[in-house]
Amino acid sequence: MQTEVYEDLESGYASGRPSLASFSNPTRVTLTDLHLKHLNEQFERFSPQEILRMSKLVFPNLYQTTAFGLTGLVMLDMLCKLHAEVPGTSPVEIIFLDTLYHFQETHRLVARVKERYPETRIHTFRPDGCRSALEFEERYGYKLWEIDGERYDYLAKVEPQQRSHNLLNVAAVFTGRRRSQGATRRNIPVLEVDHEMGVVKINPLVNWSFNQVQEYIKANGVPYNELLDRGYKSIGDWHSTQPVADEEEERAGRWKGQQKTECGIHHKKSRYAVFLRELAKRQAEEQGETERATEAADPKATIGPIANMAVDLAPRAASPKAAEEDAVALVSPSGVPKMTKSGRKIGFSLGPVTARYTCPVQ
């Protein structure tokens, strides 16, 4: 896959162009329900270090995805120590989604982490085509997280994550989710299959408490975000993160006052991706209806952009199901144009206010 590198790959900061991924991706590692159940039963008895060690043996193309929260930092330290046990092996590399709205303290932490763990490579992915918050706002609008939070999550987090998985050929990822974080995380297993992203997710510290994580950080001198000393326990974007009181749940400061506990990365379905698919479906159906109406009035007539796609869509446009399948096949979840067999480009323009379906003539 060709990529456009915005910064030097050797620094670990790179962002490829959006992948032409489907809305549901086949997993690169296949686990039957029985196998998944068996692994979860075994891993429940293991320590985090044992889960990490076994996962490195079992899963290929394994990465750690983290925003450098406490759990992710504990895991990074553990992985580096395990790597030192077997000289010559490759360390687990990191995927970091830079939304462009992280605290400055978070970016300073990343610099300290790179200095402390020089052998671990960090792959940083940003929103498509954006290298700063200003560029993001010029392209998608000011305070998008307030105007359309689902769309913001998709553009800033879900799409870059999909792109990272495709570009790096990711099969499995370590995450820092724990049951003690509450909300939707109370019952997560050690292992789970994310069919939308097409990866196996591994949660090695799922049984640890916040205090256990904090004790490990202190005992092992692991660098951590200075915001933790100011009352923050879970740290994301600056516009949606607040300190929490002692009696509050760990993630209570995330999206405070909203009926929201996750950003879209760990949802079963990205609702904005579903929105894109439904919009493409509606537009395809409308075009099919227009084409049929025009043909009924004048069978020899052609209609602008639809005529340009006739070789690909006309034979199938007679049924809504066919129109839906064509719409889904031609539009990527990131809104990037795909090419039809005839070379016609199906554009999907996402402006600051609404999504717009276009069919430019080439």
From TrEMBL:
- What cellular-component terms does GO give this entry? cytoplasm
Q: In which pathway does it act?
A: Sulfur metabolism; hydrogen sulfide biosynthesis; sulfite from sulfate
Keyword ATP-binding in the entry? The reply is: no
* Keyword Protein transport in annotation: no
Keywords, ordered alphabetically? Oxidoreductase
GO BP annotation list = sulfate assimilation, phosphoadenylyl sulfate reduction by phosphoadenylyl-sulfate reductase (thioredoxin)
The record's GO molecular-function terms, alphabetically, read:
phosphoadenylyl-sulfate reductase (thioredoxin) activity
Renumbered residue ranges of the record's region Disordered: 243-262
- Membrane-crossing segments per the record: none
The Phosphoadenosine phosphosulphate reductase domain is annotated at 62-243
Can you tell which superkingdom this protein's organism belongs to? Eukaryota
State the family it belongs to. Answer: Belongs to the PAPS reductase family. CysH subfamily.
Q: Which PANTHER family match?
A: PHOSPHOADENOSINE PHOSPHOSULFATE REDUCTASE
What's the name of the protein?
A: Phosphoadenosine phosphosulphate reductase domain-containing protein
